[in-house]
Amino acid sequence: TYGALSILFQLFADVTIAFSVSANCFRPRPKVSSAVIHVTPLLAAKVPILNEPFFERVVRGAFSHRRKFLLNTLTDAGFDRDLLLKTFEEMGMDSHRRAETLTLAEFASLANALFTVTDKHLQ
Question: Of 34, 59, 69, 90, which cross-links 96 as Cys (Cβ 3.0–4.6 Å)?
Answer without folding.
Answer: 69
